[in-house]
Structure formats: structure tokens, C-alpha cells
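*** Residues and shapes ***
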Amino acid sequence: MLTRRDLLSLPAALAAAAGARVLIAQGRPDRAAGSARLPESVAGLTSMRQQARPITNGERLARIDRARALMAEQKMDALVLAAGSSLTYFTNIRWGISERLSAVILPRAGEPFFVCPAFEEDRLREQIALGPFGGGRADVRPWQEDESPYRLVADGLRDRGAAAGRAGVDETTPFVWSDAIATAAPALKIVSGTPVTAGCRMIKDAHELELVQLAGAATLRVYAAVHAAIHPGMTVQEVQALIDAGYARVGFAGEASVQTGEYTALPHGSIAPQTIGAGTIVMIDDGCSVEGYQSDLTRTFVVGRPTDRMKRVFDLVRRAQGAALAAARPGVVLADIDTAARAVITAGGYGPGFRYFTHRVGHGMGMDIHEWPYLVNRNMYGWDEAPAARPGMVFSNEPGIYIKGAFGVRLEDDMYITEDGAKLMTPPSASIEHPF
């Protein structure tokens, strides 16, 4: 399934690859991704892989126990998990989505069962064996191309005593699948599985926090190394190629959106060709993945000397980030964290509402770069419209001011809720001239 990161990084990845090829063709392989001749700052990066501790099956079994407790609270008899990050979160199965249904059905009581195309059974069993259920006795129900997988789901639910109960479906599941399951099991009530999946995932334990923090540290190292190599005349594709090379050296998969000049006023950038000039703003956004956990950082800086207006806007955004951090503490309604940052920006003359600060101040993070819950006045999709902050929640903290036709400034760090407040997982940007 395509994520925000996929959609935003595809043009960047294509452009970066093209940029690397151009560098080599021009006899300048020193800045090509993967080249042995890199700028000293990037070449000096070393692997951080050894710091990453994988999630264990014991941890996944604890997650399943928590899911079943939430299912009982929600009066839910089963949870249907198709391809996606929640499937991986609970089972360690990594499965791409297609038109063919593959899923695990986790009943509130009893053993789970699996449904997949018959020709995929061996591949699925390989992955089941790596997860908390083992592979030997797993209840896998394969279906041939001319058979209905939805009937197999209905039969399995009947075998577990849940044919007339309530089945939660993960929110990323295609409608056609949940609709077909409902048709195959007419006594079954299909409901949203989000209170269970998000109910588990939005509270991170110490190990998960460690992985997100490591991802942030790796991203910041790459950004700082690339920043040291940027100079006027470089294209954003060249910068992206350096970032690719940096992530390859630290040992994690990552990418970045790079924008400069007036295109920094577009929060998610532009595909227009861009060259960095003296005295222009550069914005680098995105992150990397460590054992499936994401970072999401943005740094905005000037190559050369900033104008007074640039410095004022940067300082205002930095104060807004600090206001959001100060407001984030257990029990606070999440919308109030957004309000705290927005009030600073509005008081500084860049309001009201979403006029210049055009997006929410942050989003939940974990295995997905955007996941429950969100720092916004009304939480998305109608589920739990006024949730409160709880210890273990992780968010991006990313206020911004975007002045169309001129420039934009966004400062983004990841933060987590503690027992008595909130902490940033990475050192915040010091100034528009010295972001690291």
C-alpha cells in the first residue's frame, strides 16, 4: 500500500537517481549516491545498524494479549488484519497488498487462522514461522483462483464461534474485501478495528521509543553531513543523491524531499527543477526506518546569509515548536497542543488559522510515518474526536510558516509524551544559519 512517504519520495527518488547518473556522466562521481568518492562529511558516516534491537516474538505476544483485552472492551469477537503495518506489528508478517485477499483473523479467544491464495501458501508459512504463532501447526486456509476467500473467512469465524459476532477490520483494508466478508457472513457485523489496532499501537513501550529515537539520530547525522557539503549551484537532485549515500553508510533505508527558494513555501514541495542559490533557503524533510520504526525530521536553513525577514520567521517557528512541546503533557487534549503552536504564529502576524501555518502541528508516529493519533482540532475519520495525550505517545512537532512566492520555514522534530511532560527525541535546530 502506498504511504505518504511513498508518494512524496517517488519523484524525489527518480530525480535523485537521475541526478546521480548526470554526476557520473559529467565526470563528477564524488556526489553520486553509492560512489566511493563522496564529500568528506558524508564519507565519514559510519554504520549504526548494530544499535538497532529487533522486536521479539515475546513482545508481539504481549501486543496480541493487549489487542484481545481491547477487543473485549469493544465487544469485538475477531480482528481481521490484511496487508499493512498492523499485520507486521502483531505477527511479523510483511505482505504486500494486491487484488487477492491474504489476511490473518485473530479471534478474541482461540487460535488465529490465515487465508491466502493457494500458490502463496508456502511463502506465507515461511513468514508465519518467523512470528509469534510458529509455523508447524498454523491454521492456513488456501484458496484457488476460482474460489472465494471470503467464504473461507466466514467458515473460519464459524469454527471459532464468531460467525454471528462483531469483526473489526483494519482501517487500511480495501472496502471491497470487508464488504465481501460481510456478504459471505450475513450474520456477522463488520466494525472498525481502529479502536484495537490504534489502541495498541499509539502507546509505545521503551523498546519502540528506542527505535524511533535511533531513527531520528540517524536522520540527523545524515542531514548534518549533507548540510556540510551543500553549496550554491547544486541542484536538489544532487542533494538527494548525497542523502541516499548517507543513509547507505549509516545502514538504514531512508529518503528525503529537498526544496529550495520559493518552493519551500509548498509544505510537501514541488517537482519543478531547482538549483540552490546563494542566500536561498533549503528545506530537507523526511526520515528513515529502523526495524520498521520511522523518523520524520525537517530542517530549514540558508546557504549563505539570510535576510532579516528569514531570521524573524525562523525564530517565530522555533518559538511555536517550543510552545507545542511545553503544552504536551499527559491529560492535555491533543488539539490544545496544536492551538499552543498556532497561537504563537498568529500573534507573530502570520494568522489567523491556517493562512500561513497551513497544516496541523503534528501527527502520531511509529511503524507508519503518519499514524494515530493526530495533533489537530478534530481527529481524523471520526474516531475519538477529543483524545488526550498519554505517556508513550509519539508525535512529530512541526510548525511552519509558508509565504507563497517567497519562502517557507518548517522545523520538525519527533517528541514523546512522558509521565510529566514531553521530550524531543532530537536536538532542535539552533538557527537558520546553523541548523545543527
Q: What stands out?
A: The longest strand covers residues 280-290. The chain has twelve helices and 17 strands. The CA atoms of residues 64 and 90 lie 6 Å apart. Confidence is low (pLDDT under 50) at residues 7-35.
